[in-house]
Structures are given as structure tokens and as C-alpha cells.
Amino acid sequence: MPVGRFHPVNVDGWPQVVKSGTGLARKGLEVSKGQATLSLQVTTPENRARRVLVVDDETVVCETIARVLALDDHEVETVTSGPDALLVLQRSKFDLIILDYQMPVMKGDEVAAAIKALAPQQPIIMMTAYGETLRLAGSFPLAVDLVIKKPFGVQELREAVRQLAAKS
Predict the structure, then answer these.
(1) Domain span at residue 121?
(2) What is the DSSP letter of 94?
(3) What is the pTM for the complete model shown?
(4) Which end of the chain is more exposed for a tag (fewer CB within 10 A), N or C?
């Protein structure tokens, strides 16, 4: 079941992030000691807005990632299981999929393999706390384009998205 859709909007000329009509918002203005600073971002192929599907069995992880990516103007949809991700992918296309490795019902590598069987060019980022263990065991998921180690920071997430965006 989808957890939510996060998308960027402009209100009174200021970028904000909204989740399903809630009051969650962040304006793109910083004020310090009476001076206002507005940061402008130039759109390039690497940082253009993307449609992103986030798959993690932990709702708070889905929502956190979605909020960060929505602040970067990405349209984000979230689901909490592999089977739900596969259902969403039957009706929608995404520029990028970010999924967790350790989930009940279907692990992330199984979800990634199912996705790549249907769409071999689909970019997939896998989040895992088991990256080094998987690498040492020789069971690194072949259907995954990039692995980011949990826990990760906002900049690591943004860089992973940029890295895959540059390839697509």
C-alpha cells in the first residue's frame, strides 16, 4: 500500500514540500542577522527533477527520504513492501527506485531482480546495513546499480541520486 506521495510546489513564489495536503513545508529562504539569502539551483541533466519510488518496510525511513528528495524537486512515491512496489510499477514508471535490502516477504535483492526482469534499464539504488557482509560473501545483488550503506546522510543520498541520474 502506498505510504504517500511527496511533491514540490510553489506557494507565493517560494518552494515548499507538501505531503498529501498536510502542513509540512520548508521555504527556500534563509535569514541571518537581518539579511535574507535565496539559494538558486541551476537545472542540469544530473539534477533535474525525477520520479522516484522509495521502498522500505519502515514508514519513517520512506517519509524521511521522500521529504529530502522532494526538497530537491523530485516527485516521490513510497511503499512499504516489495510486492507493493511491483504493483505500483505495473501502473507507473519511475526514473529511479530506492529500496531497502532487509524487508519481510521479499528482500530487496529479490525485488530488484523482479524489476530488472521487467525493465532491465531501470536504475536501482539499494540501501543496506549489510553492504560489506554481502560483498565479502560474494552475494552482492547484481540487479542493483548502486548500494548505499545505512545509516547514511542527506548528502550521501543526494550524491547517489545524482550519480545514477548522470548515467541515465
Answers:
(1) 41-167
(2) -
(3) 0.72
(4) N
